[in-house]
User: Fold these one by one.
Assistant:
Number 1:
Amino acid sequence: MSDTAAPPPVPATATSAATPKAANVPDQDAIIAASAWVTPLRTEISRVLVGQSMLVDRLLVALLTNGHVLLEGVPGLAKTLAVRTLAGTLQAKFQRIQFTPDLLPADVIGTMVYHPKDGTFTPRLGPIFANLVLADEINRAPAKVQSALLESMQERQVTIGETTHKLPDPFMVLATQNPIDQEGTYTLPEAQLDRFLLKVRVTYPTPQEERQVLDAMATSAPKLDVSQVTDMTAITKSRAVVNQLFMDEKIRDYIVAIINATRQPETLAPHLKLLIRCGASPRGTINLALASKALAFLNGRNYVIPQDIKDLAPDILRHRILLSYEAEAEGVTTEDVVKTLLDKLPVP
């Protein structure tokens, strides 16, 4: 990064921000104090969840940015266990909703209950009214249920009858889905997918990690209980710190260039034009910036570096890039497209 810009930006290797533009950036001591809960929380989660450090970090990124997460992976990879364990370490209200083909919107958001004695209606709030909501196998519910989630995920409110009810603050939807099971499932609409901050692919453990799973879980009564190590007040304070982290102008331009490349890929590689049907929305730009600040915070820095952007770009863009039929026929994935874009774009 150049040192000649005015005012001078913070280099990627800097440890502090001394420019006037960065006057409000928290110093290293503030980062250490605000992130004091991170290590104990990771340690507590690791007592139950073996490996999957990337998955845990992505959940923490979402927690710090008040975003929603879609977890995709075959059954048995501890997706539900990871979410339930995270909820157990926080002093927050947790609800699990098992999505099924016969689920109704009222089963999620609630409904109006009629009282024949006095002829009145009163709202009965659904399980969506919680801080952390696990939408298990979200793609098994039909479109009418998915549409009931749109208002809650974006506006963080629910309308029942003629009354709008605010959801708890913070509010996060952590959804899981199975990528290989097609029977009895429904493709999530693009409008809903775009409301997820991250789409995380959960992969198989390594042989060493799987041996640890075997040693710990090969019993009829595995120990899955965790202790509460922090509360939502500490998370809220950390969010305020994350919002103040320094992001250089060239880093901001780099984010915009990545998102624009998904819409005009022919500017980088002509063949990509045939593979991308639709690029990322401005919500992808905003989310990539927010998530990169959160990742920098988790790594103990008060500034964002290009590697933060590159690490998070696949999870931010995986569900926002729509591939063409040609790409699907050739077996090209969104990960392949994002990797090509990142390889061809100059890094600041």
Number 2:
Amino acid sequence: MWEGSDKGLIKCWEVGQEFAAKQPELAQACLAGELPPLGWKGGVSRSLKKLEKFGSLNYLAQWQGLRSESLDIDPTLETALTCSRTQMIVTFTPDKAKYFNQSPETEN
């Protein structure tokens, strides 16, 4: 599934939909523009020294599912979002090296 043509994005979106039904408070946070910690790199629980970090497209797909949005991700492009609660800017990227090689102060 993770190596298929969609790289698991559809499954992540479906899991986000399931989370929305089971955890409405999490879905509300996402609808409010927050980027809460989920099972993929990309969520933020607090502001850090460096206000920018990278996250995975899988996180973005799950977040869109939590918001009950259509899955709308170009797997070849980066997408930047700002967390409404922490003001951290997260750039969701298909380049795994960018989010696996982040310095510890950008991890969360």
